[in-house]
Amino acid sequence: MANPPSSHFGTTLFAIPGVAVARHPGTILAPRELRNWVQTLPFGNPPNAAQLLLQQLRLLVRDPEPGAKFEALLDVYEAPTLRLLEIVGEREPVTSGHLVPLDQLEHALLDLLAEFAFGRLRGANRLTHAGKPVPAALLFRAAELLDAADNIERLHFGASNTRHWPTLMAIFLHADADGSAGTEVAPKLGYGGGNGPRNVAGLFFRALVIGMCDPNHHNPQDVADWYRWIGHHTALLELSMLPQGPFSIPVDISGQASPLHGARRSKPGTSTRYLVTDAFLKALHDDAEAPPELYRCLSDLIKGRKTPEQRQNPRQARVHPFRLSVGLHKVHARLSSLTNGTAAAAGTPLACVQINQSKTGAAFHIDNPSPGALAIGDVLLAETDNPKPGGAPLGFVGRIQRLVTDHAQRVEIGVEKLDGRVMPLTLTGAAADRVRGDNVGLLHHSPGQARPVLLVSRSVYRENDTATATCANGTLTLRMRQLLDGSARTALIEVSED
């Protein structure tokens, strides 16, 4: 590291849950007995096995006097935890791009991984109390567990950057202070393919970079690609006391701010360091197999700090009920009915509450949406009742740009408004044949764009091909110029009217 060592962090105790007042009679404190008990766990029912494992581990970690065999007892939990991680890893919904809430097994596993990490850190605190150095392997084990938990949450759009970030920061600072942050340790969990960082610094830098890029704005598959690529290139990153050129990003080492908030708002001071990214960005730019979105996100973050205002359109707090029609088909059906004057509902809309708005967007809270109902890039229609009796509903068409879930399964979505005019249309001819009935779309005319944008199924796009469509204004012939953006289900295509 470019930081000078600090004895302060090397002697600071880790913040972990307090111990119990008295020992629970069900606590297993003999390694052989614990191994025999693990063999009886019902792995045919993974959620039940995870819950039983969590309960027993919690009794051990919070026992008032676990004894000299504490570390040996913790080691017994590694094999069953890895088995549960493999079960979860086989079914992560990274390819769909849709929001799939955490299930019972995943909730239990997240708590299990965190409790396991607390157990490792309790061992670290005991060594610190005794005036002994904490081995690099012990710190790495704790960071490895928290890293696995955070990555599972990221793939479900969880707000993982704030949950374990202070602890990961504390682990890194402790290791950096005693010179062990770069010491290589053989990973045991093997999460993420087993080819990731092999030291505390690598785990920390990977979590830092992903957090700075705000994974809640991106498809889980993109974030999974970041996770793998960064894991092989963390040696190209370092922290410095002072900025080292134009590509240095501020980092708040107090642990009180998320990586993204620290990068945007940190000011020079004792709690600010700088992430030196020159070599990392060069490798990211030159590697043809590197995830392209990662380079763009980091570049935008660096450029954004040079602008006088991060948010040109400040949010205004709101608490107002809304209804959401999500997905191209539902928005098309609802807009068509409004255009025809029938005002028929397109299925059952999602009830939600608008929590803030700005000139260009809004945010909503949704309780317990059905799996697969939401995805980054999806188009939606947000409506609320008109306060005037008999008036038409008020609202706007937009696209989901951010998804965040909490442990109560409440979802917050950030929506970008589509300014201007949005017109429903139906594809006909060859373009309609290609999509096999999935022939509905929207045509967006924005005052700030020279050409309109067609929102349709992704399989419609053929560069310079034409598509015929019918709408309220008659028949249109649209030539597809370029693919601008999209989601797993919808493409945004710049078109011209022939």
Highlighted features:
498 residues; alpha+beta; six-stranded antiparallel beta barrel; six-stranded antiparallel barrel; 16 helices; 15 strands
Helix content: 25-40%
Mean pLDDT: 88
Largest sheet: 6 strands, antiparallel, barrel
Structural class comes to: alpha+beta
Shape: globular
| Poorly predicted sequence stretches spanning 5 or more consecutive residues | 4-10
Distance from first to last alpha carbon: 60 Å
Number of helices: 16
Radius of gyration: 26 Å
Strand order, sheet with most strands: 4-5-6-9-8-7
Total DSSP E strands: 15
Which band does the percent of strand residues land in?
15-25%
Secondary structure blueprint with pairings:
Elements: H1 7-10, H2 31-39, H3 46-61, H4 70-76, H5 78-89, H6 104-129, H7 136-154, H8 160-163, H9 165-177, H10 200-212, H11 220-231, E1 238-240, E2 248-252, H12 259-265, E3 272-276, H13 278-286, H14 292-304, E4 316-326, H15 328-340, E5 350-357, E6 361-367, E7 379-384, E8 394-405, E9 410-417, E10 421-428, H16 429-435, E11 440-445, E12 453-457, E13 466-471, E14 474-486, E15 490-497
Antiparallel strand pairs: 1-3, 2-3, 4-5, 4-7, 5-6, 6-9, 7-8, 8-9, 10-11, 10-13, 11-12, 12-15, 13-14, 14-15
Describe this structure in words.
Helix content is 37%, strand content 22%. β11 and β12 form a beta hairpin. α7 packs parallel to α10. With 498 residues, it is an alpha+beta fold. A six-stranded antiparallel β-barrel has the order 4-5-6-9-8-7. About 1% of the residues have low confidence.
